[in-house]
Amino acid sequence: MKTFLVRGLPTSVQTDGWWMSEPPHSKRPDNGAKSQPVFPQLIAVVALVVTGDALLWKASPGLSLALFGMALLLAVWLLNGRRGTGAFGFAALAFLPLVEHAQPLSFAFFFTGLLLSVVWLALGGWPGLARLFGGLWRFVEHAPDAAFSQAKSAANAALSSTPEASVKSAVLSWLVPVGLGLVFASLLVSANPMLSNLLDGILRARWLSTELLARVLFWGGLVILTLPILSSLNMQERLKFTPSPLPELPVPAALNASSICRSLILFNLMFLVQTFLDVTYLWGGASLPDGMSYAQYAHRGAYPLLATALLAGAFALIARPFTSGSSLLRIALLAWVAQNVFLVLSSLLRLELYVAQYGLTHLRISAFIWMVVVALGLVLVVVQTLRNKPASWLLGRAALLGVAALYLASMISFSNTIARHNLGKDLVLDPGYICALGPHALPAIKEFEAKHGFRLCGDAGSINLQVSDWREWGFRDWRLQRSLAALATEETL
């Protein structure tokens, strides 16, 4: 190391500037990324673009999109040393609604499941539910920047592999051969009739067409979607997430042990009146006042009581911390939640009475589902209170309960369910609503028409449901085709 002397200074401090002779160190910013080889990722991008073109080009999303999602995960798995294999089972479960039937809800499960599986694979194994969703949030936040950095690294690697590292040098090195090559090509084409005819055939085939341009743009879109997912391998440190307990929110002065005690006593008495009326008229079968039918009584109370139960559940969540030191408050809270569970069950009975007279609709089925979910959520409040669990325990399980309800709903053809119920019962029939349910109601409609001998929906049976492209196959449509084929066979016998 050379010594740097500062003239004019005392000898004791002349060598104090030695550090100025050191060359500057180039320090890469620590962004939490782990360097990955560029060449295998380039091969993966090309392979995924080819796969996406074969599966998705000019095809309605469904089975093809699920297969392409699996191809994306397979590429990440191979590039990450074949770790985190369990993500494939999770992805298959999330992709099943899309294979069943392509609809907005199944698309939501597909994309969420795909991104969660990518995080799972990038981390190399199951990180836990909280860390998995935390990693998903960080992936969505940092993936664009990671993809851009990866593309920049690939470009720099491609340029640095040539003697000239700059773009200007590369252009200058290719300017003469390309320019003279085009001149020689034009002379050869003009002198050789066979080459001229070949060029004319290419132009007549319209290879440079609008469709080709659209396809090239489609490839570009696949690259843009693929790069962030493959770049997850460079984000392992960023994706690591340590969950922290929920912050304690400030409690208003109006909420204290005394006010909670008075509220629970008052609410129990108020709900006791409603419980008594439901036991008397709904469950006991007592006669209603003149001019009121059971359907009217049920319709007026079903939805407001569901909203009441939701508010009661929120209040129970707020009130639970104040009951830990008092067994009386604890009993009062459990009694009130139990009354709310009974209230939801009464709402279910009200809705059933109304449906028995006026039939099913999509809104009424949704109400049935969410009433069951609310009732189970209130049961979770009881378990939380008895086992003295924190609010995060209840919120996490309530969220899983809601996701499970949505998942099961995505696997059911409600149009077919509504048509079969309404056409198979003696109730007030709305043909316009039945005929507008879509093709999946056709089997029930055709069975009804064959049984009663008249057309309910005109030419509804003339809808063409044949799937000519295997990429657009769906399990629900396949079952529908089999049902219609069986009905057609019975009609010909």
Average pLDDT metric: 79
The total beta strand count reads: 0
- Helix proportion of residues, in percent? 55-70%
Low-confidence stretches: 17-33
What profile does the largest beta sheet have?
A: none
User: What is the radius of gyration?
Assistant: 34 Å
What overall geometry do the principal axes of the alpha carbons give?
flat
Overview of the molecule:
The radius of gyration is 34 Å and the shape is flat. Helix content is 69%, strand content 0%. It is mostly helical. Among the domains are: 123 residues, no CATH class; 156 residues, no CATH class; 56 residues, no CATH class.
Considering the chains and any ligands shown, give keywords for the structure.
single chain, mainly alpha, 493 residues
In summary, what is this structure?
The protein has helices spanning 38-56, 63-79, 86-100, 104-123, 129-160, 167-191, 193-204, 210-230, 236-239, 257-283, 294-319, 327-358, 362-387, 391-410, 414-424, 431-435, 442-452, 475-492.
Outline the secondary-structure elements:
Blueprint: H1 38-56, H2 63-79, H3 86-100, H4 104-123, H5 129-160, H6 167-191, H7 193-204, H8 210-230, H9 236-239, H10 257-283, H11 294-319, H12 327-358, H13 362-387, H14 391-410, H15 414-424, H16 431-435, H17 442-452, H18 475-492
